[in-house]
Design brief:
By secondary structure, the protein is mainly α. The protein has a single domain, classed as Cytochrome Bc1 Complex, Chain D, domain 2. The chain contains six helices and no strands. The model has no long low-confidence stretch (mean pLDDT 91). Bound molecules: heme C. Heme C binds next to helix 2, helix 3 and helix 4.
């Protein structure tokens, strides 16, 4: 009787391990796929023209998306998602925006209606991989 219980637990343990291994294997490629989709969306929606594919930005004009300062500014994905949705929209009609417009400086567009939430989530996953 005791050995039967032993066999039972060993079987359960083996099944658990097999599922864990499949789970870990399965998640890797899926994660990479989302990052790759995010990269394509980053290009498609024109983020790349201002921020660059490596997220380097343009000194004095467009902030970079790849250093530790940026990471500290956006500790959570939600905060970054919100920023991408709003763009420079929150500053509309401010003195800063008037200066930007007058000097023809790049203005971060509002993406709330241009991108779906799903798309922005994938873009953020891609941006997270740019960190130096
Ligand atoms: C026309 C140029 C332009 C385009 C296109 C653009 N951005 Fe920006 N982006 C900016 C500028 C300028 C800022 C700084 C404005 C600010 O912080 O209010 C900025 C700020 C940001 C920030 C915050 C950076 C920080 O340090 O606070 C993020 C994140 C970002 N952009 C992501 C994106 C993504 C993702 C896209 C595409 C969906 C995109 N941007 C498209 C110009 C652009």
């Amino acid at each position: 009787m005791e050995s039967k219980t032993g066999v039972f637990f060993v079987t359960i343990a083996c099944i658990t391990i097999i599922f864990l291994v499949i789970g870990v294997w399965g998640c890797g490629p899926r994660k990479n796929k989302e990052v790759e989709e995010g990269k394509q969306l980053f290009i498609k929606h024109g983020c790349v023209t201002c921020h660059g594919l490596d997220g380097a930005g343009q000194p004095g004009k467009v902030p970079n998306l790849n250093d530790s300062t940026f990471k500290e500014l956006y500790p959570t994905d939600d905060k970054m998602i919100e920023k991408i949705k709003q763009g420079d929209g929150a500053w509309e009609d401010s003195e800063m925006m008037n200066v930007k417009k007058k000097e023809n400086l790049p203005i971060m567009p509002v993406f709330e209606k241009k991108c779906s939430n799903e798309e922005i989530v994938r873009i953020v996953k891609f941006i997270r991989t740019l960190l130096k």
